[in-house]
Amino acid sequence: MGGINVIELEIVADHESASARVAGCIVEQVRREPASVLGLATGGTPERTYELLVEKVRAGHLSFSQATTFNLDEYVGLQPAHPQSYHAYMRSRLFGEADFDSKRTHLPDGTADDLAKAGEQYEALIADAGGIDLQLLGLGANGHIGFNEPGATEDSRTRVVDLTEETIAANARFFEARDDVPRRALTMGIATILEAREIVLIATGESKAEAVERAVRGPVASQMPASFLQQHPNVTFVLDEAAASLLGSRA
Ligand code: GLP
C-alpha cells in the first residue's frame, strides 16, 4: 500500500542541473524568509548545491546571516575538527564560506558522553527554533535518509544508530581506510524529518535508481526508510535522468 500523498518529481538532465534546481529552492526559501530554519544534509550529492549557494552569497545575491540550520547527522566519536566529521564537511563547504552566524548552525554532537541525552537536546533545539522550514535530503543506495538505515521506524527521533556494512562501504571513499569509518552515528529520526514543513530530496546517478523507484512507488516500509516520505504532504524529489531511470516503466 502506498502513502496518501504523491511525491512530486522533478527530473532534469544531470547532476549539475539537479544541483542548480535544489540550490534554487534554498535561495527562494531564504529570500522569502531570511530567518528560515533549514535542515541540511551531507554526502557527495549536495556538494555542488553548496558551491552554488556560496557563489550566490559571494556575488551579494543572498545572505544566510539570519538563517538557522540543523544538520541531519554526525558520526559518533569523530571530533568536530576531524576532517571527515560532518562538522568539518559543513564548515569547509558552506558555513565557513558564506555569511552564516555560527551560533545558529547546528549538528548533532557525536562526541557527547551521553548520546541519548544529546539526541533529546537536539530535538529540543529544533523545537525551540520553531521547527524546520525546508529540509534537504540525500538518499543512500539502500534507501537511508540521514542515517536512518533500513529498519528505522516512523516514530524515530534523534538517536544513535548502527551503520550497515553497505553504508560503511559506501562512505569508505571519504576515509583513508574502511576501518576508519565510524560504525555508529547520531541522526535525526524519521519523525523528526517528517515534521519539516517542506522536504527536497536530491538523488543523482544510476546507483540511486533502485532506491528512488522503491521510495516513490514501493510500499511504505521500514525496510525502505525513504518510502516514509510518501506520508509527507510537501516533498519534491529532484532527480537526474540516471536516478529516475527505473521510474519510467511504471509511471
Ligand atoms: C550518507 C549521509 C546521508 C546521505 C547519503 C548519500 O551516508 N549520512 O545523509 O544522503 O549517505 O550519500 P551520497 O550523497 O554521498 O551518495
From TrEMBL:
EC annotation from Swiss-Prot or TrEMBL: 3.5.99.6
Record-linked InterPro entries: Glc/Gal-6P_isomerase, Glucosamine6P_isomerase, Glucosamine6P_isomerase_CS, NagB/RpiA_transferase-like
Record's keyword annotation contains Cell membrane: no
CDD domains documented for this protein: GlcN6P_deaminase
Biochemical pathway: Amino-sugar metabolism; N-acetylneuraminate degradation; D-fructose 6-phosphate from N-acetylneuraminate: step 5/5
Residues annotated as domain Glucosamine/galactosamine-6-phosphate isomerase: 17-232
Reactions listed under catalytic activity: alpha-D-glucosamine 6-phosphate + H2O = beta-D-fructose 6-phosphate + NH4(+)
Keyword Cell inner membrane among record annotations: no
A Pfam cross-reference name: Glucosamine_iso
Keyword line: Carbohydrate metabolism, Hydrolase
GO BP, sorted A to Z: carbohydrate metabolic process; glucosamine catabolic process; N-acetylglucosamine catabolic process; N-acetylneuraminate catabolic process
Active site: D73 (proton acceptor), N142 (for ring-opening step), H144 (proton acceptor), E149 (for ring-opening step)
GO cellular component, one term: cytoplasm
GO MF entry, a single one: glucosamine-6-phosphate deaminase activity
Family in the record: Belongs to the glucosamine/galactosamine-6-phosphate isomerase family. NagB subfamily.
Matches recorded under PANTHER family: GLUCOSAMINE-6-PHOSPHATE ISOMERASE
Purpose of the protein: Catalyzes the reversible isomerization-deamination of glucosamine 6-phosphate (GlcN6P) to form fructose 6-phosphate (Fru6P) and ammonium ion.
Name listed for the protein in its UniProt record: Glucosamine-6-phosphate deaminase
Species classification: Bacteria, Pseudomonadati, Planctomycetota, Planctomycetia, Pirellulales
